[in-house]
Amino acid sequence: MFGDGLWSFVVIAGPIVLVVALLFAMLRNRRTPRQEAQTEQATRELYKQQSEDDRRRTP
After folding, report:
1. What is the mean pLDDT of residues 46-50?
2. Which pTM was predicted?
């Protein structure tokens, strides 16, 4: 009967551990407004550079 109790624990605790792990990951990966602004600026610069490169290549 030990197997039944263990299986019940796994079925109940498994989703709880999964939710806790997901919440932890989401909270650790949040960006500050400054980081978000840096990312946006770098993206704009990359797009601008790519557009310039494409214009030079197009005959």
Report:
1. 95
2. 0.53
